[in-house]
Amino acid sequence: MTENHEHKQTFRKPYQHKQSRWWWLQNRFFTLYLIREATAVWVLLYCLLLLSGLVSLSEGEAAWSDWLNSLSHPAAVGFQMIVLTAVVYHAVTWFKLAPKIMVVRIGTWTMPERLMLIGQWLGLLILTAALLGLAIAWGA
Amino acid sequence: MNIAAPSADIMKVTVQRYRPEQDNEPWLQHYQVPFSADTSVLEALQHIKDHLDPSLSFRWSCRMAICGSCGFMINGVPKLGCKAFLRDYSELHIAALDNFPIERDLISDISGFVENLETIKPYIIRDDPQELDTSQPINQAFIQTPAELSLYQQFSQCINCGLCYAACPQFGRNPDFLGPAALALASRYNRDSRDQGQEQRALFLNAEEGVWSCTFVGYCSEVCPKQVDPAAAINQGKAASTTDYMLNLLSLSKSGEKE
């Protein structure tokens, strides 16, 4: 067979679109996803705040009470409200995803998603109440 | 609903064009398309090609959400052209699927996706290849109960339309990611009671380009026209991958030996 370069000519030139760095603003679903992922940043900042509390505790009673007082500064309260919102949003969205990740099958029965959701919220409520009760009992 | 007579209403349809022999990047062309209550987006494109502009290129075949050929970005959302209707829009913007190279106009080059499908060995694997020797008459029945079928049936409904790849920002970032449909199909065969290929597929599923490139955006399951739910398949695969990893640590798994 002879090579015929004329027949090999091609106009193929696939256009590769580059993902925009603003892809997460493209639709609501992506934006809500990125907010969920970004809640980790707020949790990290809150962990640093708690860590600074631990450091001030090691520095003596004056430093500790200074740190405690600084928490009730309006800016600090605002920050804690943001962190709380972020954590709740994270919990809501992850609790919704959990039944997709973990399918509970007993024999031929599959646990319905709703039951798993309720179970997670009940668990969270009971643990929160127990922790709060413990903290109040400790303080009294 | 007022069922309009044919050609009663006209909709402005914007179509992304790309002609590799002339264009360096995609551009937009506007058409006025008559429609009635039952006009699908695919039919609108066919109207354009038949009556307004024969140079427009797009893929289609079955017209009923079985073949998976007519996936487009319709007003920014990955959808099948045959399953979206003009009556639900006030204006249409049709583009080629996101995250794939554009071959021409609305035609995407999905060969990368097809290669990913091949990678995960989407067929029944038996430890004893003699059992599947196609040169021999079938001498053994692979019986399966309805309960065993129900474990994977949902993940076997994929029509390879690629909408989930267009919906996946991780695939957009990294085309080496095996992606939603391929991983869901791997899950489908891993769950099949007749299959014995889990260890062979584990190599690909456990890799960086396997389940771990997924961050559970979940949009793939949202846009899937067949309710396959690839996000669920992949994220359940992460649990399996973790188990496999732990077994490897304890040298109990066979899949690690081949690495």
Descriptive terms for the model:
heterodimer; A: 140 residues; mainly alpha; two-stranded antiparallel sheet; B: 259 residues; alpha+beta; 5-stranded mixed beta sheet; two-stranded antiparallel ribbon; 7 strands; 31% helix; 14% strand
Describe, in plain words, how this protein is organized in 3D.
The complex is a heterodimer of chains A (140) and B (259). Chain A is mostly helical and 140 residues long. Chain A contains 4 helices and 2 strands; from the N terminus they run αααββα. A two-stranded antiparallel ribbon of chain A has the order 1-2. In chain A, strand 1 (105-106) and strand 2 form a beta hairpin. In chain A, helix 1 (28-58) packs antiparallel against helix 2 (61-70), helix 1 (28-58) packs across helix 3 (74-101) and helix 3 (74-101) packs antiparallel against helix 4. Chain A is flat, with a radius of gyration of 26 Å. Chain A starts with 27 loop residues before the first helix and ends with a helix. The model of chain A has no long low-confidence stretch (mean pLDDT 91). In chain B, helix 2 runs parallel beside helix 6 and helix 6 (180-190) crosses helix 9. The mean pLDDT of chain B is 91. A 5-stranded mixed sheet of chain B has the order 2-1-5-3-4. A two-stranded antiparallel ribbon of chain B has the order 6-7. In chain B, 31% of the residues lie in helices and 14% in strands. Chain B is of the alpha+beta class and 259 residues long. Chain A: This is Fumarate reductase subunit C. Chain A: InterPro entries: Fumarate_red_C, SQR/QFR_C/D. Chain A: The chain crosses the membrane at residues 30-55, 75-95, 115-138.
